[in-house]
Amino acid sequence: MPTSTNTRWTKKRDAKRDRLSRISSMIEGKFVQQDNIVSVLERVIEPYDRVILEGNNQKQASFLSKSLANASNEALHHLHLIMSSVSRPEHLDLFENEIADRLDFSFSGPQSTRIAQMIEDEEIKVGNIHTYIELYGRLFIDLIPNVALVAADQADANGNLYTGANTEETPTIVEATAFKNGIVIAQVNEIVDELPRVDIPSSWVDVIVLGDEPYQLEALFTRDPRHITEIQILMAMLAIRGVYEKHSVQSLNHGIGFNTAAIELLLPTYGESLNLRGKICKHWAANPHPTLIPAIESGWIDSIHSFGGEKGMEQYIAARPDVFFVGSDGTMRSNRTLCQMAGQYAVDLFIGSTLQMDYVGNSSTVVRGRLAGFGGAPNMGHDPKGRRHSTKAWLDMQKTGDELVRGRKLVVQMMETHQPGNRPVFVDQLDAIQVAKEANLGTPPVMIYADDVTHLVTEEGVAYLYKSDSPAERKEAIAAVAGVTELGMTSTARQKHRLREQGIIATTDDLEIDVKKSNRSLLAAKSIEELVMWSDGLYDPPEKFRSYWT
Amino acid sequence: MPTSTNTRWTKKRDAKRDRLSRISSMIEGKFVQQDNIVSVLERVIEPYDRVILEGNNQKQASFLSKSLANASNEALHHLHLIMSSVSRPEHLDLFENEIADRLDFSFSGPQSTRIAQMIEDEEIKVGNIHTYIELYGRLFIDLIPNVALVAADQADANGNLYTGANTEETPTIVEATAFKNGIVIAQVNEIVDELPRVDIPSSWVDVIVLGDEPYQLEALFTRDPRHITEIQILMAMLAIRGVYEKHSVQSLNHGIGFNTAAIELLLPTYGESLNLRGKICKHWAANPHPTLIPAIESGWIDSIHSFGGEKGMEQYIAARPDVFFVGSDGTMRSNRTLCQMAGQYAVDLFIGSTLQMDYVGNSSTVVRGRLAGFGGAPNMGHDPKGRRHSTKAWLDMQKTGDELVRGRKLVVQMMETHQPGNRPVFVDQLDAIQVAKEANLGTPPVMIYADDVTHLVTEEGVAYLYKSDSPAERKEAIAAVAGVTELGMTSTARQKHRLREQGIIATTDDLEIDVKKSNRSLLAAKSIEELVMWSDGLYDPPEKFRSYWT
């Protein structure tokens, strides 16, 4: 009988105790002084550590990221950073300053150009680009963090945290770190006597510091209706009539962008005229977009579960607890992990946009010189093959004659045939393939794979790609709605006729859409000001959206 | 400009206040007396409510489920029950007694025969059968609960909860309910002055009651090595050599069953002889199986994140915090949602077993007269198409010549060619198809779809199904390892030879496995007693597993 090897089994716990003992002179309870934070980070973090730095596309642990970038690279070097979003300049300064050298991440919108250059220059070794919950999953398996740097709204004297509307990913990354004897450091905007409610219990947190200013919070999901074009309104009519109504889409995700904002603002007008209220768009996995206000106020929407909060929407949300997820204290709780899970498994439809689509339907927002990543799109924009419940929309996608009666998620790509600058969206080969070679990625950063896309909406019509029998027919269907692009011009009148006859594509005529109506008067709100009016004055837009009307 | 419809937007919050006011004479703080629980349930729950009743395959809110079954069906009727697992007799009594009539669930192992009969008799209207996280996802979208009935280990006087090793699904279902103004009722085993740590904050909970006895906890993942057969040992050798070693599988999920228990017990013996320590099986999404102890003690395993706890493993886990997820208090925290997410996205391999597989590779544990559901298997046992990070194992599955370089998850089915009673596991048509018709399900309860299965391991060898080019070739490969079954006998020597040449199947000879060694002496532990010895006496097996050796 073999016996235990008598290895020490508490190395991580011992290491945590040692690290925290190095700051014993600087800490009271769990609290450290703002001025000491760089020194605290230099003592509790060690070279080669895996450090998860909170920063997703909304909330940023900005005081902690700035402080980490101010650390000495003699004390801290070769850090392996894990980040949902590479968003702030100092996120990349950390690599330039040789504090960090490895990176696993999901999204890099604002830094996508600089990050591409730094990877090419070998200043950053990229592990992989992930979806959000794929990255969170790895925090429990093979990317368990040594240290988490997170942001909260408030702490009480015991060290409990309130994260409120912007709870987002904080509980998940804290859980992965705290329960594997990692060290959790939180910046807070305020220290208060009593929290509205506890979002993260004190026993999960090691070090708390008051930030120099409130954490950075981006109003990323606010779209000013003034900028919605008539082409976007036409595409929104096509989507509502040709996709949402056709398949009775009851539950869905909308992301960022003017295309989907147009759909939201057409529900109380065009949708109402089609008598669709209560029949479509009742249950949402979505951020609290201001452009959802008219549909909510008109009684279209039963529930919205959110990934994060949205600046300016706080009072409106608090006044609409029947719709949003709100705690006993009256403020929202978002949860990026749970909303992504719901958006993956529990909604009928994902709709998104892309910068490039190849001729068979693969798409990516990664283009040459810009490594943007995807965030949650690939998670929600695929057919979740572990889904087993059925709805009308899901069953509509099944192949005829399949005795296993297996439906599919509706994955819709919606975009104009040309990008700004008149660059066609349809390309022979995705830039992603070349980018992967240059950045030495294991696999090209494709956002949505062709075999997952069920519908394509352009200003030319709707292509029902789920009905196509082969890649060749899919290509024909894409070409038929590709307009005046190289691909579009390969589509003959004869092909288009056949595809329309077979119901593989549909034009505004086929869908009985009155093109004359596709103008801005169809928008339920034509400006931020009108959104505020719809909200009974509860929506409080951020400063930068007020310039037009104050 | 339209204005708000002035609907009341706080209906759910008002209803919650009204419901709680009905028990104001019975509640002190958040606490109600045990004797009053039936009356409390009758007053805060209303007919037609959606009630989520905690009960997964380990922890059960057994005091609350018994109490609900004792309610009057004049007070409570037409409840829509949502349950991860239909496990206890009173779960179905609720339907017989006409307290509930609708059910959405995931798993019904112990009640699978009775539930099938009741559905046929139309005593239960089944919505859908789900995976766990699919069901949890719907709690935030279109199955938002009015009431949650959950179980915890301890509460403090303020109403904070400690759920410890069996945290499991509790935080997720509480979050879905509490933040949409539903009512959260928790049974606890103890009320204490100070919790070891807080798992669920007080402000998420409305009513707490001390259970009449500790909540039911099943040692579902304990497998006595005495019952492992030599055929299982042979299959385990095939899996280790032909799958784990071949593809360098570093991260994985093992579920329930003797097949995978045999693999676990062969790592420190057979695996060691192949010099595989540190090369395979380092990172796990798995419950804390006692049969993992020898591999842990031999230094094979870096980390295990768990769905739930396992009875008897508490002290061992507390002494191995480097491996398990353990809080600052020293006890484990499991999390079914996060572990399923990790098991879906972050591991290379899922391995499972089935009761039936059809000739092209679809499988199900649902057989005529038994509607068992699947729990987490379809979630982890499919290729997650939202995955974007790559590993050696994942890339091994890619199709040659695909410029998108898209790998796949390894989804392995491992089973003997015959079930107990000599019934072949391979069937022309899954019973699930007929069951779906009889139970009026939207879609047949298939556990793993053929196109997701990459490997099949039987006592005859390994079939590398991911290499097959067509359903016809996949059928040939399955037949080649199907032994003396109707399907197996269609396989000719010539076919087998070709499939071996092409590497689509492999036998023990091909894999250089010494069949003579496949006997019980290869098990690192041959009994529960030896597991206890490996654990230095820290593993404390439940009573029913001690009968053999005390």
Write structural notes for this entry:
2 copies of one chain form a homodimer. With 550 residues, chain A is an alpha/beta fold. Chain A has 2 domains: 23-217, 3-Layer(aba) Sandwich (Glutaconate Coenzyme A-transferase); 225-528, 3-Layer(aba) Sandwich (Glutaconate Coenzyme A-transferase), CATH 3.40.1080. Helices cover 29% and strands 18% of the residues of chain A. The first copy, chain A, is built from 18 helices and 25 strands. In chain A, the strands form 5 sheets. In chain A, strands 1, 2, 3, 5, 6, 7, 8, 9, 10 and 11 form a 10-stranded mixed beta sheet that branches. In chain A, strands 15-14-13-16-19-23-24-25 form an 8-stranded mixed beta sheet, with helices on both faces. In chain A, a hairpin with a 4-residue loop joins strand 17 and strand 18 (363-364). In chain A, helix 3 runs parallel beside helix 4 (89-96) and helix 8 packs across helix 9 (258-273). The longest helix of chain A has 18 residues, at 230-247. The first copy, chain A, is globular and about 80 Å long. Residues 1-6 of chain A have low confidence and may be disordered. Chains A and B meet through helix 1, strand 7, helix 6, helix 7 and strand 14 of A and helix 1, strand 7, helix 6, helix 7 and strand 14 of B. Chains A, B: Pfam families: Mal_decarbox_Al. Chains A, B: One of its GO terms (molecular function) is acyltransferase activity. Chains A, B: Keywords: Acyltransferase, Transferase. Chains A, B: Its EC number is 2.3.1.187. Chains A, B: This is Malonate decarboxylase alpha subunit.
